[in-house]
Protein: Acetylornithine aminotransferase
Amino acid sequence: MDFNQYDVNTLMEITSRPDLVFVRGQGSWLEDNTGKRYLDFIQGWAVNCLGHSAPEMIRALNEQGSKLMNPSPAYFNEPSLQLAKRLTQSSVFDRVFFANSGAEANEGAIKLARKWGRVNRNGAYKIITMDHSFHGRTIATMSASGKPGWDKMFAPQVDGFPKADLNDLDSVRKLIDAQTVAVMLEPIQGEGGVIPATKEFLQGLRKLADEHGILLIVDEVQTGMGRTGTMYAYQQAGITPDIMTLGKGIGGGVPLAALLARQDVSVFSHGEQGGTYNGNPLMTAVGVAVFDALAAPGFLDTVQARGRQLSEGLLALSAKWGMRGERGAGLLRALVMDRDDGPAIVDAARKLNPEGLLLNAPRGNLLRFMPALNVTEQEIESMLKTLDGIITSIR
Ligand code: PMP
Structure:
């Protein structure tokens, strides 16, 4: 038996996908097992904030890997303490719980809010979430998500996630009752189609939460770690959430996520939150390297500049082709088309020769762009030109 031969049909995961096997990555570029190169505007689903195989990450992996990989979740390790310090110093939170995925961090946020409700709010447990939101694929985070169809497909759901309409304060207000403990949302709905919560909505939610003595939870798994041009997206709305979750970019490509909360909210007792690999030093050492790259002077200014370039380029395309504009922030953006060309464009872009282009269409009429945060001006220019060519050939 030759164990080095593989068959793509043996692997079943979240979605159907084209028979494409990647073997190598560098910066904004990927290479498949036939040697073809692709300009990558998906970047591991907005994960690889420093691009593929960033030198600082490789260095951290090598150094930490040869030093200490996994002491025990029962003891502290230096990289996790160093990363926790960076996360708390750069945010409004005092406490960090590490996790291995965004969904796991959100599970932690849900658990923390429920315990806080048990302790402070007479057992209130309901968490109001938004229609079309996405918080993960565990059973509680699926219940929290407002993805159409999931409520029936995996019934019975975890109880206690009434759904409000994004950017409609009244719809949230109407749902608040004595059992409500929190409101939870993404500052920009990523999977839902790059739909930003407005500043007024976020500020209104903060006020509403204060009036009712409930918590505001932001899921920054997709928007955090510089993706939207500031370290955390909530900072752009000038609000102070009570709980935040991070994932994706925090590890820059390794499985790392985090739950952050203010001290007075962090009511977990020992043993209630955590897991074998939480705060693993190999992952958190990479997290430290990633954080320091994002926090380096000028880095986020450049993200904002590239974001403006991408935004302007998409607006020009939209105007040229009679589309509906673009939206998003920083380097999480979407082109809103006037028809459902998304899948055809994604397909054509991937098949281009000699170099392919990797794009994502979360909805038929939408293209989402989530390049590396250190994507170059030329790479954005090149993507826009390629995209224009594909639209020309399709229409
Ligand atoms: N929350 C948000 C906002 C996300 O975008 C995602 C992933 N797309 C998740 C949670 C789940 O993260 P993970 O896939 O790491 O579990």
